[in-house]
Specification:
9 strands, homodimer, globular, 8% helix, two-stranded antiparallel sheet
């Protein structure tokens, strides 16, 4: 395997109230209800046609303030290390973030959304319709479920 | 907005039975049950620790055979054009694919999974645990639901 770098150009930027990562609720169990908008490049606005029909969107974006990565990370809601691919830690080999947001409305090249967890100015790579869910009953959530159980026992 | 390109290096490659896109079930309603494995770069294997505890993973990858993009596309299961960001069409401004797969088992740097819809040799950008679902009752699926209803009426 001799991987070649692949280059992407942002399709737009996140406009949120978060100016500092310390303001963003952290950890896998955190709830995100912040509102803001996704400002898409004017030349790409025709690509948003019909997006209003979807209630939820998947946003792919860049952790643009992160440099370097770790392979073993200890998440904020746990006290032991896990492989970075078993977490959503920002300092990953390719610092790409994924957020599911609720689409409130579209105004031209702006998508007003709820559920942001990105800094203001975050570069957006792609937006896709959120289509279907894996039933909760079929999900296993590994160390996260164990960590939640431990934290609950401490309460 | 003056976007700067951002460069990523694949963390590994998809190993699937699909040698040609014609073999892959298409359209937003398609069901994917193909098995195969995600071969992660040996230097990144420590990043897979504890991933076995999760039943489902989100895989971000590159439509590596696609060149260029369209802003208005007519999907295989519909007869009218939609904005590319309201579809999962490959020829998008940043040709990044997203697939939710079921993790069967891990063997070293190989993640055996079910639900692949990528070509053999597809570069992988990132892997994340699939954590929670938006309840189906809360989802609106825009033109896709309308298209499904029209197709059903034709049967």
């Amino acid at each position: 395997m001799s991987p070649e770098p692949i280059s992407f150009t942002p399709i737009g930027y996140v406009r949120s109230a978060y100016g500092d990562t310390a303001e963003i609720p952290k950890g896998l169990g955190a709830t995100h209800v912040a509102e803001g908008f996704l400002e898409i490049r004017p030349d790409l606005e025709p690509g948003l046609a019909d997006i209003d029909g979807f209630s939820h969107l998947v946003v792919l974006w860049v952790f643009h303030r992160v440099e370097g990565y770790q392979l073993a990370v200890t998440p904020p809601n746990d006290d032991r290390p896990h492989g970075v691919f078993a977490t959503r830690f920002p300092g990953r080999p390719n610092p790409i973030g994924l957020t599911n947001v609720e689409l409130i409305r579209r105004e031209g090249n702006r998508l007003y959304v709820r559920g942001l967890d990105m800094l203001d100015g975050t570069p957006i790579l792609d937006i896709k319709p959120y289509l279907s869910s894996i039933p909760e009953a079929k999900l296993r959530r590994g160390w996260l479920a164990e960590s939640e159980a431990r934290n609950k026992a401490k309460e």
